[in-house]
Specification:
Distance between the termini: 201 Å
Strand content: under 5%
Largest sheet: none
């Protein structure tokens, strides 16, 4: 057998004490083993107490963890709700800008059509104005030509009148003398 002196006290055990009953067929009783001076039922009680403490403290820890997880779940749900709301707003803005772009394209087409019509109107007006200006210039040229003709005719008449007056004066001077002029002058005075 191993000596008990070299073993630590925790593992040291005493030899089993067996009492034999005096009666026939009686069972013997064994001495209960002890660890650190505690009987097995005491160790079971301590283990149960430790287990209950762990369960009690664990329940508080579970509640704390569950509360923290619930708070995180609520925060995530709030974030998801906010994300849904932001997505809905973004979709609304996208639709609004799509409508604006479509409206801008229609406006641009309308502006191009309007510009074409205005350009056609301007070209038509310019053609009409050009035709009117050409007609005015033609009339002005015709008027100038007519005025020049009238001036030329008036000058020609004036020259012809001067020439005929000079020619008549020469004729009269060559054929009439002073006595004949007196007779004519007296006749004209008499007629008045």
């Amino acid at each position: 057998m191993v000596s008990t002196e070299s073993m630590p006290e925790v593992f040291a055990t005493s030899e089993a004490q067996i009492e034999v009953a005096d009666a026939h067929g009686g069972a013997g009783q064994h001495a209960a083993p002890e660890l650190l001076g505690l009987a097995p039922y005491q160790w079971v009680s301590i283990a149960m107490l430790v287990l209950l403490l762990i369960a009690f403290l664990g329940a508080k820890v579970h509640r704390t963890i569950a509360g923290g997880l619930d708070a995180k779940i609520k925060a995530i749900r709030d974030n998801l709700d906010e994300a849904r709301q932001l997505r809905a707003e973004a979709e609304a803005l996208r639709q609004e800008y799509a409508n604006k772009i479509a409206g801008a394209e229609k406006d641009a087409e309308a502006m191009i059509d309007n510009a074409r019509r205005e350009a056609e109107g301007i070209v038509t007006k310019a053609e009409a104005d050009t035709a009117a200006m050409v007609a005015r210039r033609e009339r002005m040229a015709e008027d100038r030509i007519g005025a020049a003709e009238r001036t030329a005719v008036a000058e020609l008449r004036a020259r012809a009148a001067d020439a005929s007056t000079r020619a008549a004066a020469r004729l009269i001077a060559s054929k009439h003398d002073a006595a004949a002029d007196r007779v004519l002058a007296d006749e004209v005075i008499g007629q008045l």
